[in-house]
Design a protein that fits this description.
425 residues; alpha+beta; three-stranded antiparallel sheet; 17% strand
Length: 425
């Protein structure tokens, strides 16, 4: 399974700016000006993404299970549906900006079929969902050694791992679950849940959903059932045979299959009580073993999710928005830096190839740089010109002046004010 080319830029923004500023291709006299440009560019993106955050918070407010505030007026059903649609649309746009990719349904179906790496069988009902959004960022191939039978058996497993997985689930309303006779639910019908996880094996995607149920695997059923059956036979032959003969005689007499009346003296009653008590204790022991094993599986699931969970509900929006802002800013910085240091007009393909080679040499992985998206941001901010099929970067002093005018225009009020401010893409 070859590693996939990632759109995510695996460098912190501060490290990226420092690496570009210190690169020998940038004139020493331009380094301070380049850092100034990056600083105001960061501020522009931060301002524009703040507007996106406020819109997302507004859309999610009626569905946030952790909200502490309450609306002054009830929200109509039409307004709720409108906000649901906008939340899903804006969240997808945000995930794309943060260089996440949607997980195909085929991958999720394969996760349900494949054996879990932490050896727990899980069941998941997709009919519970009215809406499902599942994205991931970063994928690599890993190898682990699984142990079984008290460490006597080892098995090497190669699997695909996702660095980040983002999930939105909107459950159906209570009426739907009532119609199915489902009352005791581990989630709130109609709720919209947001989750963000890290280091998730593709085969374990189903464990991330809030309606996942732990089920016994066939091997676990055998591990409990076979000893129970053997133990049951032993108990039957050694301790319950007399009790069963006595119960059989009573039943035969009551059904008219036996003429001799069965006399229940004190000794027979004590033997009957002891036998039934022994049978009840054996059955209870097997039920308790089943419950104990299931609790162990739930504990394994809980511990696994504890260390993989990054954020929940409204917190996911804040984290994703910060990641998207970083990615958008880094893409614009890289494209502008390459154009500026090239010293001559460059085509999109040349910029793309040059940036990917520069990144690959520094991070040690093959990165799929989104050149068209990066150039689109620079053109929107008026930091580059087109000359036919080629592009030219503005001089640093001009580029800083252009961004400074844009920043000053954000808070100008009056006819036509803010018309050039644009929005984050």
């Amino acid at each position: 399974m070859p590693p996939q080319r990632a759109r995510f830029l695996p460098l912190a923004k501060q490290d990226l700016v420092a690496a570009c500023a210190e690169d020998p291709r940038l004139d020493a006299g331009d380094r301070d000006a380049f850092r100034d440009l990056c600083r105001i560019l960061e501020s522009v993106f931060h301002f524009e993404f703040h507007a996106r955050l406020e819109r997302l918070k507004l859309c999610y407010a009626p569905f946030d299970p952790d909200a502490e505030t309450r609306p002054l007026q009830p929200i109509t059903e039409d307004e709720r549906r409108r906000r649901q649609r906008e939340l899903a649309r804006d969240l997808r746009d945000l995930l794309e900006a943060a260089n996440y990719e949607e997980i195909p349904r085929a991958v999720l179906d394969a996760a349900l079929r494949d054996e879990s790496l932490f050896r727990v069988r899980l069941a998941l009902d997709f009919d519970d969902f009215e809406e499902l959004i599942l994205f991931r960022r970063g994928a690599d191939v890993r190898t682990v050694v699984l142990r079984a039978w008290f460490g006597l058996r080892r098995k090497t497993v190669t699997f695909e791992n996702f660095d980040r997985v983002a999930l939105l689930v909107r459950f159906r309303g209570r009426e739907w679950f009532d119609s199915k006779g489902r009352r005791d639910l581990p989630f709130e019908p109609g709720a919209t849940v947001l989750k963000l996880f890290r280091n998730v094996p593709a085969a374990d995607l189903e464990m991330l959903f809030p309606n996942t149920e732990v089920r016994m695997k066939a091997s676990d059923m055998l591990l409990i059932g076979v000893p129970a059956a053997i133990g049951g036979i032993v108990v039957l032959m050694t301790k319950l045979l007399g009790t069963l003969l006595l119960l059989g005689s009573l039943l035969a007499f009551w059904l008219g299959l036996r003429d001799d009346e069965v006399v229940l003296d004190q000794t027979s009653l004590v033997a009957l009580a002891v036998g039934l008590g022994t049978l009840g204790a054996f059955v209870w022991k097997q039920v308790d073993r089943f419950k104990t094993r299931k609790i162990r599986f739930l504990k394994a699931l809980t511990e696994n999710l504890y260390f993989k969970n990054l954020d929940n509900n409204a917190g996911v929006l804040h984290r994703l928005l910060d990641e998207a802002e970083e990615e958008e800013c880094k893409e614009a910085i890289l494209a502008f830096w390459f154009l500026h240091t090239a010293g001559a007009p460059q085509t999109s393909a040349t910029i793309d190839r040059g940036v990917e080679e520069w990144l690959g040499a520094r991070v040690g992985r093959d990165v799929d740089f989104e050149i068209e998206d990066a150039i689109g941001k620079l053109e929107r901010l008026d930091l580059v010109w087109r000359r036919g099929d080629s592009l030219v970067a503005r001089p640093l002093a001009e580029a800083k002046a252009v961004l400074d005018r844009r920043w000053d225009g954000y808070f100008e009020f009056g006819p036509g004010a803010g018309a050039d401010s644009g929005s984050a893409t």
